[in-house]
Every structure is written in structure tokens, then in C-alpha cells.
Amino acid sequence: MCRRYADPTAGSSSPVVSFVMESAAPLSPRMKVLMDASIAVVGAHGTRGLTHRAVDREVGLPEGSCSAYLRTRQALLVALTRYVAAQLSADVSELGEELAGCPGDDPRAVEATTRLILKWLDSPGLVVTRLELATEASRNPELADLFADWRRDLVTLVDDIVAASGKEHSASRAETLVAAYDGTLLGALLKPPTERPDYVRDRISMLMGSLATPQTVLES
């Protein structure tokens, strides 16, 4: 573990990353069941296959159950986007707490980040749903706004993690890291499962090793 409860670069003690994505009130058990079923539907059939009836069938509920909670397809898409974003953000926030005060190129940081990405890949429906919703957001302004908020918060979190490690940091660097992690996740998703651990570990090691390089060198 690399936990530390104050930024080692600060003159006085300050809290490490305590960021948690702001989300709606906790879901009811039935709503959580509907959201998990929606992930299964989108993971198998894409957002085109996401209908109230498909969700009801997936979870084995009487027809009309999903629409009783979410009246329109847009409401279903919005609820699913919030649910997926909250799950992913909670995982990254937990990683940030684990890595607080740990140098980004520390082998423990590489292993912890690799474990998180492999955990997501073990639930490919969640990853595929996020990718499908991101594509849907290009045609859906309400979803686009949700993704923009989530992405901005995620970049802030990554920037805080880098800052807590004592490395040089900036919003643009954090944005680049988030994009690179996204690329690693997508690349691994297309690999055979047996090849994913080495693929992810190698890419994460290179990415986190770049944290040791001053930004002025990277930009020159």
C-alpha cells in the first residue's frame, strides 16, 4: 500500500484525494436490478437493443416493470449513464485513496492500476456499455452533457492522484493520461483474455513511467 494522508510537497498538511463523483441518491434494490440488466442488454446488443421490454426480459420481470420506473427510453439511457459513470468513478476514487503518496512509477502503483483495469475487463458488459453510451452521446445532447461532467471530474481526480504522488502535474497532463488509459482499456478489450494481463501491465507501466518525466521535456 502507498497510503499517505498529507501531500508531501505541501508546506502544511492537506488532505489527499478525497474526491468522489457526485451522484444521485442511492438506488433502490429494484432500480439496481434494472440497471444491471440494462448493462447486460447493452453489452450483448448495443444501445439499439436497449428497450424497456428487453430489460424486463433480461431480469425476468413482467412486461411494464422497467417502464414503471423509467417512463421513456431517454430516461432509461440517462439513468444507465449515471449508473455506469458512478460505478467507474467509485473504482477510480478508491484507487486514488490506495495510491495516495505513492510515486506514479512505483511498481505497486502499476500493479494496483493494472488490477483495476483487469477487474473492469472481467466485467466486459460494463466496459462495452460505457463505450456504447459514449457513442450514443455523440447524438444525444443530454448524455453528452453527462459524459462531459463525468470526464471533467475524472480528469480532476487523476490530477489529484498525480499531485498526491509528488509528481509534476497539470490538467492537460491528466487529460492525456485519461485518454491513454481509455486507449489501453479498449485495446485490451480486443485482445484474447489470456493476453490481457501482460498487455495491460506493459502499457500501464509505460504510462505511469511517463509521470517521472518533467512536462517541459514531454512538450519540447
Low-confidence stretches: 3-23
Return the string of H and E elements. HHHHHHHHHH
How is the main sheet built? none
Beta-strand content bin? under 5%
| CATH homologous superfamily identity of the domain at 80-212 | Tetracycline Repressor, domain 2
How much helix is in the residues?
55-70%
Class by SSE composition: mainly alpha
Global outline: elongated
Rounded to the nearest angstrom, the radius of gyration is 19 Å
How widely separated are the two ends? 34 Å
CATH topology group of the domain at 80-212? Tetracycline Repressor, domain 2
- CATH class (first level) name of the domain at 80-212: Mainly Alpha
E-strand count: 0
Number of helices: 10
Mean pLDDT: 82
Q: Give the name of the CATH architecture of the domain at 80-212.
A: Orthogonal Bundle
Structure overview:
There is one protein chain. This protein has 220 residues and is mainly alpha-helical. It has a domain at 80-212: Tetracycline Repressor, domain 2 (Orthogonal Bundle). The protein is 68% helix and 0% strand. The protein contains ten helices and no strands. The chain has helices spanning 29-45, 52-59, 65-69, 73-99, 107-122, 124-137, 141-164, 171-189, 196-209, 215-219. Helix 1 packs across helix 6 (124-137), helix 5 crosses helix 9 and helix 8 (171-189) packs antiparallel against helix 9 (196-209). It starts with 28 loop residues before the first helix and ends with a helix.
